[in-house]
Design a protein that fits this description.
This protein is an all-alpha fold. It has one domain. It has helices at 22-46, 48-64. Helix 1 (22-46) packs across helix 2 (48-64). The longest helix is centred in the middle third of the chain and has 25 residues, at 22-46.
């Protein structure tokens, strides 16, 4: 079974009587964050102008953020 096939398995919340462990939750979260980063990178390649303005906006927000 590949990593992608494991997504088709029912999650611990859908299985009755199975408690989700911290390790499972962190693994799923890490996979989600990897997919999210991949999607953002793809979007930046497909829409470079929009990505550039988003980068500039983010930089401005970070410059004006007060700790």
């Amino acid at each position: 079974m590949t990593e992608r096939d494991s997504r088709d398995d029912p999650s611990p919340r859908e299985r009755p009587g199975a408690a989700e462990t911290e390790v499972e939750r962190r693994r799923r979260r890490a996979e989600f964050l990897r997919d999210l980063a991949e999607a953002r990178a793809l979007r930046a390649r497909v829409q470079p102008r929009r990505a550039k303005t988003a980068r500039l906006r983010h930089a401005m927000r970070m410059r004006t953020f007060r700790w």
